Amino acid sequence: MPTTADYLNDLVAQKNALADNLITKGVSASQSETLNTLVPKVLEISDENYDEGYADGKQEQYDTFWDANQQNGNRAIYQMAYLGHGWDFSNFYPKYDIVVKGSAQAMFYAWYTETHVGSLKARLNECKVSIDLSQCTNMSNAFQYTKFTEIPKITMPAGVATDGMFANSPELTTIEGLTVYKGTVFTQCFSGDSKLTNISFTEGSQIGNNIDFSTCPLLSRDSLLNIISVLFNYAGTGTTKTLSLGATNLAKLSDTEKAAATEKGWTLA
Q1: DSSP letters along 177-214, please?
Q2: Over the stretch 101-137, which tens digit does the pLDDT of each residue have?
């Protein structure tokens, strides 16, 4: 049966072990100290290791999820990938460039609550990734019913379905840049985008099909001139296409500026 001396010797051994453990954790301590001074020093142990471990675990979780979601950057089909029913700016932090080689239909459809308000362009920049739809096979509803304020540069390939691509997005003010081709179609792409102010078609783009901005009365004059500048020239071909701008936007243009469109064989509405 242990004696009192045995208990005391064990207590001293534990005190010395405590001192040694504190030293290991970077806290100044000595075996010559008493428990009265050693015990409070436990609070001096840095949380650095815990914080580092937590950060490592968080990064591992992020990598595991997005590696699976984006197939290590090889995912090609993003149809309904980030529907607003479950995705918003609190959890959308893609790890890889979003390069769509199949369907992007309804990719961001229905980002329409308050947690969905924000700049898609800014979030992608924050994540250091981009969206590439140049090889996409279907863009219908890709950004429809969202509350994105800004959308980054997008390429809209020719002959691909675009029904409602950017439509019904009441907070959308800016589409940074659109690359389009003569064969690109614009099926109600901008319908209901009442705050759309800035849109720029990239150099070399050609609008060759009917396009409607009549429900976007806030378009800047620079945006309107940019649109007219990339209209395909159908003069002398017998082909007539329609650029619908609406009365409010048409009033921002001079007769000469309007003529720049009509002389290319386009009807203004």
Answers
A1: EEEE-TT---SSTTTT-TT--EEEEPTT--B-S-EE-T
A2: 999 999 999 999 998 999 999 999 999 999 999 999 9
